[in-house]
Amino acid sequence: MKVSSALAALLSLAAGSALAQDTPTAQLPAQVTALTGCWRGSGEVMGKPVTLTLSAKPIALGAMFLIETESQAKADPADRYAAHLVIGTHAAKGGVPATLTSYWADSFGGDYTATGAGSVREDGFEIAYPYPPSSFLNRWTGAGDRLAWRITAREGDKDQPFAHYEATRVACSSTEKRG
Length: 179
Known about the structure:
10-stranded antiparallel barrel
C-alpha cells in the first residue's frame, strides 16, 4: 500500500511538471539580453560620486535575466551598496504587448524588496519599482559596449533624479562568469 501511494504521488508530480513545461516561456527581449556580460563605470547616487561594477546573465534556463550590481562611494570605501535584479517577460496576449516584470533585492534587506513592471524601448528598457510614497523608474540604455542606467524618483507628479551611471563592457573575472 505504501509503495502504491508513493508511486501515485510521484506520477502526480511528474504529470504536473509536464503540464508546467507545456507552456512556452516568453522570450527575453534583445534589449535586456544585450546587457549580458560585465560592466565597470561610475556615476552619482543622490549627488554622491560612486564607482559601479555590474554583471548580467540569463538564468533559469534562459527564462529570466539576472543583473548583479555593486557600488562604492568614491569618498568613503566603507559606503557600499549591492543589488540583485531578476527580470522576466510577460508574453503578449490579446493585443496587449509584452511587458517586463522584475524583482529588486538589495543590501538594505528584506524590508526593501520590490516587484517592478516595465517595457522595452528601441534603445533599451525601463522598469518602475514602487517604494511608497515614491516610485523609482530605472531606464537602461545600451549602445555597443556603453551602458547608461538612470534612476528617477517620482512622487505624485514630481520627478527627481536619484542616480545615474555610465559603464563600459569589460572582460568578466572567473568569479563573475560562475555567478
